[in-house]
Amino acid sequence: MRPDVLKCLVLFLSLCVCPPGLDLFEGDIMEVSNVNYVFLPFFSPCKIVDMVNAHCDSVCCPGMNAKALILQAFEHFRLKTCIDFRPRQSEEYYMSIRRNPGCSSYVSRFVKNGQVVSIGNRCDRLGIIEHEIMHCLGLHHEQSRYDRDDHITIIWDNIKDGLQRNFYKISQGESTTFNAPYDYLSVMHYGKNYFSKNSENTIVTKLPQYQDKIGQRLEMSPIDVYKLNRLYNCNGSISFMEHCDFTNVDVCGMSFCKKGLAEGWKRISDAAGGPYTDHTTLGKTGGYFMHASTASGQEGDSAWLETKRMSPTRKCHVQCLQFYYYHSGSQSDQLNIWIREFRDKMDSRGNLRLMDQITGEQNGNFHMVPLNAAKPFQVVFEVHKGNEKSSGGFSIDDINLSESECPHNIWKINNFERLLTNTDYNSYLQSPVMYSTDGYAYQVITALRETYFGVYFRLVSGDNDSTLEWPCTWRQANIIMLDQNPHIQQQMSKQITVTTDPSFSAFDNPYLVGKRIRRHGESLHVNSAYGVRSFLSLEQIRSRDFLKGGTAVFLLTMTGKILGLILIKFTIEYIL
């Protein structure tokens, strides 16, 4: 594909962008005159703070892209922390997110009748939104810690004149670190050259390996999460339900049964026919996974692995099951995923419902299953022996379950680093054609540039084009490169979003405005692609688990119309 087919929509990724004339403490922190404790960053919890606007227009509200990102940020807080967001009723203290100039917030609960968090131009990025909300929740910048001089050096001579106060420390008498280690990877940390007058570093880390990592805006770090939960004196989560990597012998309280298969489910560290290591550690420290062999037994034999009972707590009755599986059996063997729902505590049998089935050719994949349990339930993994000879079976590892919606599509790219570094500069990888919830066809493209890569989204011709509304108006495409840390609450993934603005011809009917190409022997009309030229660098993807066994995993979702999304005032609450 020619480079001119990909027209890059520049997504501004700078943070704390403050227009001239805004006088903010530490770049994005709003001050209240004659009050000292606005600078108490670590111990002023917002028991009731909260969120956004009952009546939105282009002046007061974040842009369409930012609106959906704000809701995504809420879901991240619900998954990783004890903090929830609920519609405001009559509380005096609540947070009002507005499209004011720049990205800014007060620290902690401070202002009655709508405490403003500004998500203005160039702020519609998940990590930036989390950063500003965390200010409101009570956290200050990481480099403002009273002990920061043990970990970083401020290069005062490189700071722009008049902006030195952005690097002041908060005294020990006014703050606490909760005994958390200094967090170079905090979403609350400045980057190495923030507020520089000469493009030179304003911050130098005393551990050199973190010099190019400070200032990340992927999402909140595990230490950020720890501090938030300490601040609110809780350690729960709103939407997280279960994680199991089978490290412990009790296999997370799961139970087993079998019918005919000689061994049933077993906790092992390698299996005949593969895999030869667990997925959690890939053999680095000797981990375990669950395996059910189909090499013996009769057709129709089965083995069952059942989780403990869990109860939904959210009103939406939506769950997402994620796990890694390895299929080394015959093409007729099956891995069936069920849920067993119970009427009440006295119900011991429950009602089984099949949610997904994996069969066919041998492979290993990250997998997601949308669930919809409304009552107490178990997840059941059943391996069912087929009618062909097998020398292997099914293995599962790294299970995560949360009360949240699953991304809609998965795009897996094997040997990603080799492709990135060894193919011609500006080579393109194209995803299969995916479909949105309301039927629009699209593709995601990665542009390989040796030491970094770009990611782009485009509409393409599909099966439903004659019945769809054109142009494709106010849908949001969400592209996530998954940090494959085995625990979902520890992940720090990278994402971009593209919102389909009807004023752009690229979001009109591909048959009318697109270019005709041949793909796998078939004709396809493709529109111009929008995205970011530099999505992640080679160094960045090596710094976390973006590649597992050399494989990159992209999670792709294109939502329905968001035009009617009106953000209302919310109150933040937390569970003890």
Structure explained in plain terms:
The protein is mainly beta. Among the domains are: 163 residues, Jelly Rolls (Sandwich), CATH 2.60.120; 150 residues, Sandwich (Apoptosis, Tumor Necrosis Factor Receptor Associated Protein 2, Chain A), CATH 2.60.210.10. 10% of the residues lie in helices and 30% in strands. It contains 6 helices and 31 strands. Strands 8, 10, 11, 13, 16 and 18 form a 6-stranded antiparallel beta sheet that branches. Strands 9-12-17-14-15 form a 5-stranded antiparallel beta sheet, with no helix packed on it. Strands 19, 24, 25, 29 and 30 form a 5-stranded antiparallel beta sheet that branches. Strand 26 and strand 27 form a beta hairpin. Helix 1 crosses helix 2. It is globular and about 80 Å long. The protein starts with 48 loop residues before the first strand and ends with a strand. The N terminus is likely disordered. Keywords: Hydrolase, Membrane, Metal-binding, Metalloprotease, Protease, Signal, Transmembrane, Transmembrane helix, Zinc. Its cofactor is Zn(2+).
Give the arrangement of secondary structure elements:
Blueprint: E1 49-51, H1 64-80, E2 83-87, E3 95-98, E4 103-105, E5 115-119, H2 126-137, E6 152-154, E7 203-205, H3 222-231, E8 240-244, E9 255-259, E10 265-268, E11 289-293, E12 302-306, E13 319-327, E14 334-341, E15 351-358, E16 363-371, E17 377-384, E18 393-402, E19 409-413, H4 416-422, E20 427-430, E21 434-435, E22 441-448, E23 452-459, E24 476-481, E25 494-499, H5 510-513, E26 515-519, E27 522-526, E28 530-537, H6 538-543, E29 547-548, E30 551-558, E31 570-574
Parallel strand pairs: 3-5
Antiparallel strand pairs: 1-31, 2-31, 4-5, 6-7, 8-18, 9-12, 10-11, 11-18, 12-17, 13-16, 13-18, 14-15, 14-17, 19-30, 20-22, 21-22, 22-23, 23-28, 24-25, 24-30, 26-27, 29-30
